[in-house]
Amino acid sequence: MLKDHTEAPLPRKLIVEPTTRCNFQCRMCVKQSAGARIEEGDLSSRILDQCLEVMPGLDSLVFTGIGEPLLHEDIETFAAQARSRMPNGSRIGFQTNGKLLNRERSLSLFDSGVNTICVSVDSIEPALFNDIRTSDGFFDVNPVIESLGRNRAEVTAKKTGGDIRLGVEFVVMKQNLDQLPGLVRWAAQHQLDFIIVSHVVAYGKAFQDQAVFLNNSYESMAWFEIYRKKAEAAGMDLQEYSRMLWKYHKTEQETELYRLMDEFKRAAQDQGVYINPVHLFSEKKGAYDAVRTRFDHAEQLARQYGIELTLPRIRPKTNRRCDFIEEGAVFVTWDGQVSPCYFLWHQYEVMRAGNIKQVSPLYFGDLHQGTLGQIWQQRDYAEFRQKVIAYDYPNCHAWCDTRCDYVLQAPFYQDCYINDIPCCDCYWSLGLLNCLT
Length: 437
Ligand code: SF4
Ligand code: SF4
Ligand code: SF4
What we know:
By secondary structure, the chain is α/β, with parallel strands linked by helices. 34% of the residues lie in helices and 13% in strands. The chain is built from 16 helices and 12 strands. The strands form 2 sheets. It has a 10-stranded mixed sheet with strand order 7-6-5-4-3-2-1-8-9-12. The model is unreliable at 1-6 (pLDDT under 50). Bound molecules: iron/sulfur cluster (3 copies). Residues 394, 396, 399-400, 403-404, 406-407, 415-416, 424-425 line the site of one iron/sulfur cluster (SF4).
């Protein structure tokens, strides 16, 4: 319980959704999720005005959301308003699909104080790019990135644009994993500063087999190796466990294997590591190395070219961390709803262990009725943040190989430990997803 919730410092990162309209129809977009209920609309200046009081304390403001920010004609006005209040050294950025990022627009953005631009590039091969990111007609992102670089050079030479950072976001999937090292070279050729890589979120069945992250943590794999060797030394194969688990009459050796597996689970759990036999036994040989090799190569190239490369984890964290709450982030939807994170700011469906999970948004206030500072300091929001970073809730991904109705159904009201916050089944805190913040 907070001693005094009004003492909660104001947010340091603000993520604002300029619009939910988009000029693309990407297949992996949350808007394509069968259960998505995302009304289309644009941010009004009235909503941004309600956020102005927190701006002097912000490290960053990012215009992004479930839509294309450049479709909003006033984004430069919003950025300029924010820039006049935000501290020196702070960043104003946005995430874009790049289609509308022509010379005039990029110059007006730089002029308004935007100093970070991140373009979604999921492939450097135009055919695959257009397969993943679908728009009306063929779209070539190369001229956009080239022009962006020239425009930055122009404003930097005139000293009118400040320290501008340009980069790309890449959603890594089976179909584009091989392209990651090439993307780093391509980024270096275009003098980009950063690359953010995230795993794909499966908003529908079509993408659930595209993810390249693995289900087992490094810690659970280390324990698995210890007990695999113990079993081997005793002439047993740990993999036999699933086959004999439900046998009523077990042989002596099967009983011994059962006992060893039990010891394995308890020993790991005593050290805070949860063992999920289904995940352990189903991990495909070589799957980790296939991703590790590409990631290592990309990292080596990024170091060589001086590019900041943010990669997601290949395996989930054992000790979860919610970067949004830990780093003081807050999300504002186009219609003024205040949400704590990316996971909970819209209504949609997502795949979990072969099941369809319904996600309902979590809002702590409406900016038509109060300012962002007031909503941020409300007792319920302050207490929510404290509960999130206590991490005292189940870890569905680590513990369960399927999902119960508590987490599949919306609205969420409790998990199996009777916690009332919907954080137990979140992939963000497992380190699998990244975004511009
Ligand atoms: S560009 Fe972004 S918001 Fe638009 S359809 Fe694609 S993923 Fe969705
Ligand atoms: S809430 Fe449900 S899915 Fe999550 S750990 Fe508990 S029983 Fe498993
Ligand atoms: S759902 Fe995930 S991202 Fe959202 S507050 Fe909880 S842990 Fe953080």
